[in-house]
Amino acid sequence: MVELRHIEKIREWAKGYPATEEIKNEMLLCTKSQGCTAWYMAANHSKLELLQEIWEWAKENLTTEEIKSKLLLAPDISGNTAWHLSVYSREPGVLQKIWEWAKENITTEREKN
To answer: DSSP labels for 56-98?
Structure first.
């Protein structure tokens, strides 16, 4: 399992990499065969620290719309989102944090329209 220190090292390395689009597409939004991103897998394993680190990285590199559609609301091939997985894992801290981030970002997007 990936640990927080691994994500931190990758994030530090990526800061010096000039191709932001590649970072977005190949690291933040890349999916496994079942449609799972690193964000989704961190939620699946109830890893709040990893979710927080990926969230910070996403805020630096993704638009609000990408955060909303490709992290918060993105389903896997079964239709489950990271929110669903946090419910299944019965980890209230992860569930609460994803709820806060979704509320903040989806509300921000609605206020703009």
So the answer is: HHHHHHS-HHHIIIIIIS---TTS--HHHHHHHTT-HHHHHHH
Q: What is the CATH number of the domain that holds 61?
A: 1.25.40.20
pLDDT in tens, 84-98: 888 877 778 888 998
> What is the domain count for the chain?
1
CA within 13 Å, CB half, 81: 13
Q: Is 46 strand, coil or helix?
A: coil
Domain ranges, residue 91: 4-112
pTM: 0.69
DSSP state of 35: S
Confirm if 43 and 98 have CB atoms less than 8 A apart: yes
- Residue 60 CB-half CA count within 13 A: 13
